[in-house]
Amino acid sequence: MEPNFFSFLMVFLASVLGSMGLGGGSLLMLYLVLFTQLPQAHAQALNLLLFIPTAAFAIFLHRKNQLLRSNLLKKNLPSGIIGSILGSMVSTKLESQLLRKIFAIFLLLMGLRELWNLWKERRPKTQQNLPPKA
User: Fold this and answer.
1) Cβ atoms of 54 and 24 closer than 8 Å
2) Buried (b) or exposed (e) across 55-79, using 16+ Cβ within 10 A?
3) 3-state DSSP helix/strand/coil percent for the chain, to nearest 5?
């Protein structure tokens, strides 16, 4: 993959969206896999490594807006950094087709989880308070 303006723009947009929790990593993965010659494993490794500065930017924004819960940050930051580095190293060792399947399943499960949470929030209150059927 040769660096060009559009690639830098996509990385920037994905980073901004990711720092707000809006799926920037998924957007970047789609771009890297569909519009560049980058193999799946390298795209996933790059995506995971870009998570670190994106997370740092998100921390900055959340702290600025007084939305940062320091106790959770201290608890989760080390495992997030270690997981990103290990995930990027592991992804380069697996076959591209296997990575595609794993990533597709992951995206499907995350989408289903989001739909489930949305359904739970929007269902009528009368259904939420009914006792379970025996």
Assistant:
1) yes
2) beebeeebeeeeeeeeeeeeeeeee
3) 80, 0, 20
Rounded CA separation 62/75 (Å)? 16
Using CA atoms, how far residue 46 sits from 32, 40, 68, 100, in Å, is 9, 10, 27, 15
What is the DSSP annotation of 74-127?
A: HHHHHHHHHHHHHHHHHHTTS-HHHHHHHHHHHHHHHHHHHHHHHHHHHS-HHH
- CA dist 8 to 28, 66, 87, Å? 11, 30, 23
| pLDDT tens-digit map of 65-111 | 988 888 888 898 899 889 878 887 887 788 878 877 887 888 889 88
